[in-house]
Specification:
alpha/beta; Cytidine Deaminase, domain 2; protease; single chain; eight-stranded mixed sheet
C-alpha cells in the first residue's frame, strides 16, 4: 500500500498537467513501516526526453534527490510519471525499465484532463500488479 495526502495528489496532477504535452516524472520519498509506504516528499525531476510517449530522469537530479532523502533519514518509496493520452497502467517500456521490485511505480493518466487517474503498481519479473493506493486528508 502507498499513502498520499490529498494535497500531494492535487500537486502531482497540477505538475503533470502543466508539463503537457510531455510526460512528467519524479521520485517519491517517505516512510515504510510494515510494508506500508507513506509519501512525505515528492521530488519533481526533469524529463530529459521531453516526449509525450516516454521519459528519462536526469541522472544528476536523481543523485541530488537520493542524497537529500538519505540526509533526511527518509526512504525512496517509488517514482511517478504521467501518461498524457493513455490509461494509468504500465506500458511495455515501463515494465521493461522497472529496476527495483521494492519500489512503487505511480502512473498518472491525463487521458481525461478534467479527471486525472492515478494508480500505483509493483513490477517484478516483468509482471505488473496493482498496489493499493490510499489518499488521506
Amino acid at each position: 500500500m502507498i499513502i498520499f495526502s490529498e494535497k500531494q495528489i492535487k500537486a502531482l496532477f497540477t505538475y503533470c498537467i502543466e508539463g503537457l504535452p510531455n510526460e512528467c516524472c519524479g521520485l517519491l520519498a517517505g516512510i515504510i513501516e510494515d510494508g506500508i509506504k507513506t509519501v512525505t516528499h515528492i521530488f519533481y525531476l526533469k524529463n530529459t526526453d521531453q516526449s509525450p510517449e516516454h521519459f528519462s530522469m536526469d541522472i544528476k537530479e536523481q543523485f541530488q534527490v537520493i542524497s537529500q532523502i538519505r540526509k533526511n533519514n527518509l526512504q525512496l518509496v517509488g517514482n511517478f510519471h504521467s501518461h498524457p493520452s493513455t490509461p494509468s497502467r504500465p506500458s511495455a517500456e515501463d515494465i521493461r525499465l522497472a529496476f527495483d521490485p521494492n519500489l512503487s511505480y505511480v502512473i498518472i493518466s491525463l487521458q481525461e484532463r478534467e479527471n486525472p487517474v492515478i494508480n500505483s503498481f509493483n513490477i517484478k519479473d516483468s509482471k505488473a500488479g496493482k498496489d493499493q493506493l490510499q489518499v488521506m486528508e
